[in-house]
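Following up on my earlier thread - several people asked me to post the actual chain instead of describing it. Fair enough. Here it is, all 818 residues.
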Amino acid sequence: MTETELTHRPIPTPEQLSRAFLNELIHGQGIDLRRATDNDKYQALSRLTREYLMDNWINRLSRHIDEAPKAVAYLSAEYLLGPQLDNALVAFGLKEIARDGLAELDVDLDDVLAAEPEPGLGNGGLGRLAACYMDSLATMGIPAIGYGIRYEYGIFTQTFVDHKQVEVPDKWLQNGNPWEFAHTEMTQMIGFGGTVEEVVDDAGNTRKQWIPDHVVNAVPYNTLVPGYGGAAVNTLRLWSAQSPDEFNLEIFNAGDYQKAVQQQIDAEVLTKVLYPEDSTAQGKRLRLSQQYFFSAASIRDLIDHGVPANFDIRRLPERVIFQLNDTHPVIAIPELMRVLIDDHGFDWDEAWGITRQCFAYTCHTLLPEALEVWAVDLMESLLPRHMELIYEINDWFLDEVASAFPGDHDVLRRMSLVQEIPFRGVRMAHLAVVGSSKVNGVAELHSQLLRDRVLNDFSAFEPEKFTNVTNGITPRRFMRIANPGLSELITDSLGSDEWVTNLDLLTGLEPFADDESFRQQFAQIKRANKAALADILATRDGIDISPDTIFDVMVKRLHEYKRQTLKLLHIVTLYRRLTEDPSAQVLPRTAIFGAKAAPGYWMAKETIELILRVGSTINNDPNMTGKLAVAFPANYNVLLNESIVPAAELSEQISMAGKEASGTGNMKFTLNGALTIGTLDGANVEIRNLVGAENFFLFGLDVDEVTDLQQSGYQPRAFVDKDPELAATIDALMSGELTEGDVSAAQAVIGHLLDQDPFMALADYRAYVDCQDEVEALYADPDEWNRKAILNVARAGYFSSDRAIQDYVDDIWHTQPN
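Reply from S.P.:
Thanks for posting it. Predicted structure:
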């Protein structure tokens, strides 16, 4: 054992844990059990649990540096972690011990777990995927570090007032965070603005030197990421912005109190809020500043602290691969160039050769507006040296392109890193492709569309650079923790719990789909999960739902392309059918929504308001009791997702074909035994192929049909004119019948559909409603429904984040467990 290695502490007995818990309360927090709040107990148990992570973490850190394995540095602006205590207890096999130990003190573990605030450091799928990947990297023993931003306020807390979304600051840090600890000695100084000057170094060479006009300290906060089984613990390092000079006593004594702390305020605003509104020039500047801040701090941290002493930085590609999670951290590419050239004295060609081997880029979108473009004048003002390097990279690249496509000026214009219209800007996706060794999409269809449409010039130029890694989800959180009843049934049926780290073993469940006893147990677990969700929504939101209805679920970020409006049209159609014929045989249904709209996304907010208004009308109609209901709980997050997913029976994945990159919610529902109704979009394609077309409700236009309809001139009103039921549904919304008589309530959403409908909800309406009729017919045969649901679970193993990480390891990173 080296001097830095620690022995693993033994797993405690319940009695030992209860004593250690009391000791932490009294000596760690200065409070006795009688006066301790649930938060006090949560803090104490979290710190106690963290101790079991620390030994493994310290050992792995030392081994990673000393033994020089190739590591993954995952750069992401978002990490939607979810609650940490439950995850850590499960990972280390401590949950039942903690439950029993606390019970000896008359403390309920569930009450302690419920006291944890959720760190909302992400907006949706991008951040949740990053968290799943961090879990898999640790579970698989891959040396890795996640880098991101420690936002003081995460994604806003959503409330509803008069059916409208209202955003409230997410104060997730107000009671402290027991899972993090600062390392101020590893602070990085990050510059902004200023000028670039030529200087002569000691060898007589003329070099560039960036002189920033102000600097901000990046202080790292480490969060431990435990792998399942406890053998490996990796690091998530989040950067917090602080001023190098927090307080000017001279100015304060002169009486200008605000100016005395102005530097501190200006610095700390950098990491104040996740995704600040960027419709203004100031907002754009802040967003780019955030991206550079964490990317630059991460690059320098890896070089300063992630390699052995006297390491030859020319070998950096052997030590690390920086994985760019979308375009947000792409500024890291010119930053590494700047560090190599300006700080380490490399010539340009050598620096560029190293840089291109050190990065890989994951593109998560097909939406042009999500492929970031930063104005050149903003870049020159904020990061002048980096803009110089981007120009140089662009010159080098366009020379390469011109050699491959002589005389083709159009291809040079299309592939240039710098666009000229509609404004001069840096195309960050282009920079990511040029500066990376590999580029991947996140589902087979998405990767194909990237190659064929979005980045087709680049894929024609360097086809070997493009690959696919279909997204995945961690079965630890989204099955083992979220659905303990089904997890236990699977373990008992397969004879072991090895499936938790090898999800392919779920194929062993296939024969059980034809086993009547297993189907009954499966149905009982689903029913219990539905009842549990009903209790949670009643307590949390005052929403009453009946487990005797099908739980038809659409939970995801609110965006037009995801087509929550199409689901709404179906709900109104069902309402009209029941209103016109109260004896009509319609499947008793509860439509469950969960979604946040970005604060500046007006149409998304209008959609939420319309759904809430319609839902209120339906829920207050006594004729709908037991037949149709709408539930839209506020502040959808990871914790609520963990209750909704196991209870869902129908998974709504109804985006317009060609718009969803992959999705991961679709995978969670499939794994937990919901059947999917969806289009051929994103990972739906692979889900349908794997679970079987007969076990998937498919409807709607495919990508080619969407393209043909767009090119022929899509007229949304034409679909209304030829479909009387759709016309009547729209009339019901526009009349105010479902919005408490307010005829203006639906004008924005429905008017937009009738006039533009950019994501073709009206074109797909009839196919969707007819497909929902097929859902009703199958649900009337519960035995057959459950058989198909079990087959969905059995065939979902491919969608493990462990498989996705192995694909990255094999095809992109070329590293190995350590």
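The longest strand covers residues 214-226. That should answer part of your original question.
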